[in-house]
Fold this sequence. Notes:
Helices cover 50% and strands 13% of the residues. The protein is α+β, with helices and mostly antiparallel strands. Among the domains are: 2-58, no CATH class; 94-166. This is Pentatricopeptide repeat-containing protein.
Amino acid sequence: MENAMLLSSGYSIGCHLYSSSCKISKSQKKIGFLIFTAKANPSHGKLVMNSSYRKRSSKLSGEPQTSSNTIEKRTTVKKAGKREHHLWKKRDSAGSGQKALNLIRIISDLPNEKEAVYGALNKWIAWETEFPVIAAAKALRILRKRSQWKRVIQVAKWMLSKGQGATMGTYDALLLAFDMDQRVDEAEALWNMILHTHKRSISKQLFSRMISLYDHHGMKDKIIEVFADMEELRVRPDDDTVRRVAYAFQELGQEEKKNLLVRKYGCKWKYIHFKGERIRVRRDAFSEEEDDES
């Protein structure tokens, strides 16, 4: 039977008692271990000790392991940089303003006919490698500032027919143009399409635009329907929308719902003029004072 003992070089060992071959240098003691193997000799009845030296790893010793013969040179391998993949594609906006003005100049002299306008717009993009979305959006913005609502409707519908510009900004401009051009039926059809297609991503501004459209045309029931969809999607209305919906409840004779709406979404602060200064006070406190005076 053979037993092995691992002794650290930090301990003093009487090597001369067993064998003179177990002498190790001081430098070896610092970086190695001494292993004694004991083997019983049945013929002589003696215990024979054999010593062997094992070098300690550089990780345990904490010292760098160097070779006296050769020094290996580490070669650094230069890795190629990672290519970033984006979900969007950057579009070149150079010259988009001039393109937008060119579009407006082309359609300004055309009659209000779908075939003539669409034909001119198709010629406008005939030599383009990509659809000029930025230029078309700028043209819509310019036409909106000039209150040319028929042209806004024509350009926006043409963009959507090409599968381009299906954004909340385009929908907002188109709903506003329908409102100003008295096309309530087309606005309602567009709104139903938006509600079914982009149900979870409709912005507060778009809800406010549709409520404003129904309010301009005195359609109180439609205002309540849009507000119900707004609450279902957990979109908090702004102050102007709260005022319009509250007025719709009042016109329909639903005072309790109006008070509940104002209490839930109404602004808690109100500005009044006191001694020539504009002061902010709470609405509920101001209303309580008015009730006490009455």
